[in-house]
Design brief:
Blueprint lengths: L1 E5 L3 H11 L6 E6 L2 H10 L4 E4 L8 H8 L7 E6 L5 H6 L4 E4 L4 H16 L12 E6 L2 E6 L3 E7 L2 E6 L2 E5 L3 H7 L4 E5 L2 E4 L3 E6 L5 E5 L6 E2 L2 H12 L2
Parallel strand pairs: 1-2, 1-3, 3-4, 4-5
Antiparallel strand pairs: 6-7, 8-9, 8-12, 9-10, 11-12, 13-14, 14-15
Helix pairs in contact: 2-3
Length: 239
Amino acid sequence: MRVLIADDEPLARGRLRALLAAHADVGVVAEAGNGADALAACMAAPPDLVLLDIAMPGSDGLAVARQLAQLQPRPAVVFCTAYDAHALSAFEAAAIDYLMKPIRAERLAAALERVRTFLAGRAPAPGTPARKALCARLRGSLRLIPLEDVLYLQADEKYVVVHHVHGEDLIEEPLRALEEEFAAQFVRIHRNCLVARPRLRELRRTPAGQVQALLHDVPQPLEVSRRCVAALKAELAGA
């Protein structure tokens, strides 16, 4: 079981790590100190379980949980908080359990059993992508961009620009990793560009001999590298 711990208190994260160490089938794969980092970590490498504090800087745990509920497959969420006032809201956000601090070992073990039951029934069909949206940060908040809205992805130094039907956003994920994860959704046309397969309309050659890709809903043509031309022609022939 891959676990992400999200809590703004380092001591609280350390206690959870120590308690989880007693479970041989559980591994902590990431930690986050605020809601934005928690969601970004989930988008980059989806965990099975998120142990989530509620009162955190920026996006609180409830807001993060509501966005995680939109992912496919959806990670299990267990809230770990010092306050009981949010219990109803937590379960409305589809939490598996609600643990009160200081967290006791036996209570955490019971929550993990509930999570195992949830995960057993959650298993996606073979070939199902781990997620159906990309995550962009916007001045401390977060935006989920459904894959179906993405027109193309273009590398720009350490960022990738997501061009989608509602505009543009930056994400901090390598283009190569996105290509591998979403091979069924995107095709490479250049070393710095992936386009959504359904958006690819045609190829054309300029008077100077440069091949360009024309996309549905994208006014400007995109440059195609020579090494990608044959694959794109095959792609269009089979469409």
